[in-house]
Amino acid sequence: MATAVRIALRIPGTAPLSELVPLIQQVEAAGFDGAGILDSQLLCRDTFVTLALAATQTSRLQLFPAVTNPLTRHPSVLAGAMQTLAELAPGRLRCIIGSGYTSATTIGRKPATLAQMRACITTVKALLAGETVDFDGTPGRLQYASGPRIPVLMAASGPKAIALAGEIADGVLLLVGYTPGIVEAVLACLEEGARRSGRRLEDLEIIWAVRTGTASTMEEARRQARPIAVHWGILRWGAHWLKHAGLQLPSLTIPQEVWNIYPDLSHAHDWEAAIAATAFVPDEVVAQLCDALGLIGTPEHCAQRIAEMAACGVTNLYLMPFQTFAPPTQDLEAFRTVVFPRLQAAGLRPPA
What we know:
9-stranded parallel sheet, TIM Barrel, 352 residues, 15% strand, two-stranded antiparallel ribbon, alpha/beta, globular
């Protein structure tokens, strides 16, 4: 029998808590395996308050900050918050730490460096294990560290970051694209890092972050995906991996309107304005980027893609719906009614 695909869903904390908690309960009822709560202090309600409420109002979901960072949360604060959450949801937590892209840029700072990531992850892991850590000459330990181990994962997109995650973290959340060629190249980077600390890929939890958007037609899904596709494939790190998907982008001039979107193109408050700002990219290029990036299309298309990628060993997914300032209601319903039943029929999900 094929390995079952585990699927978690991103929940942006931009709505009031009175709306977020019922939404997370709907995610559990729909059959998802986990929920990640966005951590960006000026855009979202506090991640750890939201996680605490989610822990008390769900019984099965894996819960994690998606993702937290070393800049706005000191490692000792992160360890204390995660250990406290573990008292509410023992065995259901992951701590995922990234560079803090929006958390940093919205307050005029640069994302964390690899050196800062290394220091934060190793410190948080040590504290959660009950070890004493040196804080600039002052020894400290988490007085109440106990219970099941809380895995500490690193979010990574570039080759150096991926190798670092393989070296130091319990696992990795990969936002790199979603094709067999990309997966092969990324796993090679991850394995290189794992070898530095005498480990194998099998020793790591590997989660594939997949940008997701469903619609009744492929054309509409790709239209809605424009800001994400352009941000990932043209403005940011995605261009590094496109060659492994067999893509070569044309030369494009980026208009000022793209840079004027707040807080950035992929987290835009006004999604239609962000779509309009990407008009400089031809439709056929956006279509290619969407196919390389993730699960973008009709629910039936998304189910087929998941099955194809599961055959390549990609069986642990974190779905990231497009919009930060709108609930993922459309995608939640598409997976509940179409995608999950099709995956169950293919033996890739347990029966409902």
